[in-house]
Specification:
By secondary structure, the chain is mainly alpha-helical. The protein is 73% helix and 0% strand. Among the domains are: 87 residues, no CATH class; 183 residues, Tetratricopeptide repeat domain (Serine Threonine Protein Phosphatase 5, Tetratricopeptide repeat). The chain is elongated and about 95 Å long.
């Protein structure tokens, strides 16, 4: 009977990869010509470090913590530069591979809990349904269609591959498979920093399904310790400043305690989206929790979920693991205060845990009417999920469709209006850009950014006086931003108002004296030089050289200044440096 059951399951599983891959193509096959979006511009289009696939040193130097992510983007650039097809094809292929890995992991977990040995069981359907829900869920669209969020999908690929190979190695007692699992763990460490949790996931999986006791777990200490470098590497790269994402921590304005409180609500939102994926948004206008009272209900919900995980440990090991895997894989971005409180792509890997929980009743040995009805409902839920994924993908077609959707759902946030303005500027339509900035300013009257961008557009349109007025308002709202003063100085400079130009160049320098803009320093030095204020000009030239010591133009002009001052030795020194730099 067991042999007959296994043959039946094998026939079923033979077609599952084809079904899963077909589902992925149905969901994402129409997205291969969708535009670049948002961070695609700084990280792909303008990122010259990745524009030469053979220059591995340049790719590594840009961001070692995500080296493999940028290497894959460099590969796409090598194939077609900025033609989006290969980028989307790669992203979709990775998503398909991840869905297959979810399928294989679910199959292996069944074997460890002894499910699927009875032909009357619903367990054989568990891997397929879990993988299909993963493949077709609209919550995944942000990670798959948004090219830059390959960081999430590629990291998940190595993460899931590591787990799958580890389970397979334990089942087959295979050293090569264990080494493959280790290699995948180290690859994940150089894909995205959130993969730092992978060694803990391996430890958890070992305890839940393989060792099943602390005594047996201790015997695996040496084997488990081999995964520790995958945890240490991302932390070490962060410690030496090799992870660009640390700049988010330096620039964040949300207090640590408030961020953590808000994450209770954020995680509750992720759970709601996992069950009812409606009202999706790239850029949520998410409220900060001011006190525990603002997050208390969500905290109780998450506590109840964690307690359920403990309760299910002995009754439904897969469901219990799914709950704790969800919390673990979401922990880094929930505990480390980032600039953005919520992003849907952060749920790409954690969704696996929720799906294991939802589909786990199928693994129970005695399927009753409720279990059968549940399976039918899960199967039929794929139809609306595929529809919602299709509809959500349409939002990502162009930058305009994406940011219009954001503005509609988050009308009080700056970013939607700002990106719509940039979109029209790139298209060469400054008047349309100006209209979006005006609309953004009406929603955010204290926004220095919109005043600044309106001034930039007006300046581009030849309206210098109107631009000056906007720059002045921007500087009044944020006097610590040196760019506002610099642009005013340049307008006065072009108009021949030397005194006003010098005053604004000085204001730009004083706005951030620890890191002044080199152009403001150099131009102020030149004006002082022309005005005959040689000593002050000398001081400003030297100040510029401390920031750009190898700039030939600055060395040349300082040398010429020393000639005017009659200091031939210093003149020869700096003119020589300028000549050397040019050569």
């Amino acid at each position: 009977m067991l042999k007959s059951s296994n043959n039946h399951n094998s026939r079923l599983y033979r077609f599952c990869p084809f079904i899963i891959l077909s589902a992925v193509m149905v969901c994402y096959g129409a997205t291969f010509q969708y535009a670049f979006h948002f961070d695609d511009h700084p990280y792909i289009i303008k990122n010259t470090h990745i524009h030469d696939l053979h220059n591995l040193a340049a790719i590594w130097s840009f961001n070692p913590g995500r080296f493999l992510t940028f290497l894959s983007l460099s590969f796409n650039h090598h194939l077609g530069e900025f033609h989006v097809f290969s980028y989307h094809l790669f992203n979709t292929a990775i998503h398909a591979a991840n869905a297959l890995l979810v399928f294989w992991i679910a199959r292996l977990l069944m074997r460890f809990v002894g499910a699927g040995e009875n032909r009357r069981d619903l367990a054989p359907w568990f891997p397929l349904l879990t993988a299909m829900l993963f493949a077709c869920h609209p919550l995944q669209t942000g990670a798959v269609v948004y090219i830059w969020q390959r960081a999430a999908t590629l990291s998940a690929f190595f993460y899931l591959l590591c787990l799958m190979l580890y389970l397979r190695a334990a089942l087959c007692r295979s050293r090569p498979l264990l080494y493959g699992s280790l290699a995948a763990a180290y690859a994940a460490a150089f894909t995205k920093q959130s993969a730092v949790t992978l060694p803990v996931a391996i430890l958890m999986m070992e305890f839940f399904f393989i060792s099943r006791s602390f005594e047996r777990l201790k015997k695996k200490a040496a084997q488990l310790a081999a995964f520790a470098p995958a945890l240490i590497l991302p932390l070490a790269l962060a410690a030496v400043g090799a992870s660009h994402e640390l700049s988010e921590l330096e620039n964040r304005q949300t207090p640590f305690s408030q961020y953590l409180l808000t994450q209770f609500n954020v995680i509750a939102t992720y759970l709601r989206l996992a069950v009812a994926p409606v009202g999706q948004n790239l850029d949520y206008d998410y409220p900060l929790a001011a006190s525990f009272a603002d997050a208390g209900a969500s905290a109780l919900l998450l506590l109840a979920l964690a307690l359920l995980g403990l309760r299910l440990f002995s009754k439904n090991r897969i469901a219990s693991f799914g709950i704790f895997f969800f919390f673990l894989s979401l922990s880094v971005e929930s505990l480390v205060p980032l600039e953005d409180l919520i992003f849907e792509h952060r749920m790409y890997l954690p969704l696996t845990g929720i799906l294991l929980l939802i589909c786990s009743p199928l693994v129970m040995q005695t399927p009753g009417t409720c279990a059968r009805v549940g399976m039918i409902l899960l199967a039929f839920s794929l139809v609306p999920l595929i529809y919602l994924t299709h509809e959500r993908n349409k939002v990502w077609r162009t930058e305009e469709t994406l940011w219009r959707d954001v503005v509609e759902k988050s009308p009080a946030k700056e970013r939607g209006y700002a990106n719509l303005g940039l979109f029209h500027l790139r298209k060469g339509d400054p008047e349309k850009a100006l209209s979006w900035y005006l609309l953004g300013a009406s929603q955010n009257p204290d926004s220095a950014y919109f005043m600044y961008m309106m001034a930039r557009v007006l300046e581009q349109m030849g309206e210098a006086d109107k631009a000056l007025s906007r720059y002045s308002k921007a500087a009044a709202l944020n006097p610590q931003e040196p760019l506002f003063w610099l642009h005013m100085a340049e307008i006065y400079d072009r108009k021949g108002d030397v005194d006003s130009a010098m005053a604004n160049y000085t204001a730009s320098i004083n706005a951030r004296p620890e890191k002044p803009l080199p152009h403001a320093l150099l131009r102020l030095a030149e004006l002082l030089d022309k005005a005959g204020s040689f000593e002050e000009a000398e001081r400003r030239y030297h100040q510029t050289l401390r920031i750009v010591p190898h700039e030939a133009e600055v060395n040349y002009k300082l040398g010429m200044l020393y000639k005017k001052m009659g200091n031939e030795a210093e003149a020869a020194k700096f003119l020589g440096k300028a000549a050397a730099k040019k050569n």
